[in-house]
């Protein structure tokens, strides 16, 4: 798997859905210099684990917005599938009420560029191209800073839901480092003491 941390996030332009609106040319470039982006991939619309994640991102949207973070979802479904799912009530398996953008990676190119695409194209004994597995996205999550650089990534297998709390914790750690120049130790939480390297190269705790 590719490690994108420290590199520019792969650019794309694709259709997306926000609420009842289909966006023809959605791109992360609109957030450069303005916002952080939390881009997350999920396997499929109208499934079981996926709606729990999409609803949870929505429930915590105010926390992301307080941190100047734009949440963006993405799967390999079409914009029409996204739209239908967004109009379906929660008690019927839908994600009605979710109002952050969901990108339609219909051609699988975005998932491929972020290296979260399951399945693969292979050539059989007759020289014909076949697909092994299913070409859908793993549960990838990428934190992209205001310069468009990936600062954090995590990828789960399809049965394994993510932790929204951990996503927020990592955002807090990144923003603390950017604001104070202090590094954040294991399990650091906002409000905890951070660390700074002294001249000997040994890190020491510093209280705020």
TrEMBL record:
Thioredoxin domain mapped to chain residues: 3-176
Tagged with keyword Cytoplasm: yes
Chief place where the protein resides: cytoplasm
Entry superkingdom: Bacteria
GO biological process assignments: cell redox homeostasis; cellular response to stress; hydrogen peroxide catabolic process; response to oxidative stress
A Pfam family assignment: AhpC-TSA
Annotated GO MF terms: thioredoxin peroxidase activity
Keywords annotated in UniProt: Cytoplasm, Disulfide bond, Oxidoreductase, Peroxidase, Redox-active center
PROSITE patterns tied to this protein: THIOREDOXIN_2
Active site residues of this protein: 50
Subcellular location: Cytoplasm
Gene Ontology, cellular component aspect: cytosol
Gene3D superfamilies, alphabetized: Glutaredoxin (3.40.30.10)
Job of this protein: Thiol-specific peroxidase that catalyzes the reduction of hydrogen peroxide and organic hydroperoxides to water and alcohols, respectively. Plays a role in cell protection against oxidative stress by detoxifying peroxides.
Family: Belongs to the peroxiredoxin family. AhpC/Prx1 subfamily.
Protein name: Thioredoxin peroxidase
Organism, scientific name: Sulfuriroseicoccus oceanibius
């Amino acid at each position: 798997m590719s490690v994108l941390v420290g590199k520019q996030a792969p650019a794309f332009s694709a259709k997306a859905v926000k609420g009842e609106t289909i966006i023809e040319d959605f791109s992360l470039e609109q957030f450069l210099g303005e916002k952080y982006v939390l881009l997350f991939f999920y396997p499929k619309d109208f499934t079981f684990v996926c709606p729990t994640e999409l609803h949870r991102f929505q429930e915590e949207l105010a926390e992301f917005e307080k941190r100047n973070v734009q949440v963006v979802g993405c799967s390999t479904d079409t914009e029409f599938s996204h739209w239908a799912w967004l109009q379906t009530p929660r008690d019927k398996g839908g994600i009605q009420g979710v109002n952050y953008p969901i990108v339609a990676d219909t051609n699988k190119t975005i998932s491929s560029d972020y290296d979260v695409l399951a399945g693969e194209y292979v050539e059989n004994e007759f020289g014909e191209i076949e697909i092994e597995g299913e070409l859908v996205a793993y549960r990838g999550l990428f934190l992209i800073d205001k310069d468009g650089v990936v600062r954090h990534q995590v990828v789960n297998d399809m049965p394994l839901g993510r932790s929204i709390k951990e996503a927020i914790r990592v955002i807090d750690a990144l923003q603390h480092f950017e604001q104070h120049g202090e590094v954040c130790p294991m399990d650091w939480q906002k409000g905890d003491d951070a660390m700074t390297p002294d001249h000997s190269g040994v890190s020491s705790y510093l209280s705020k």
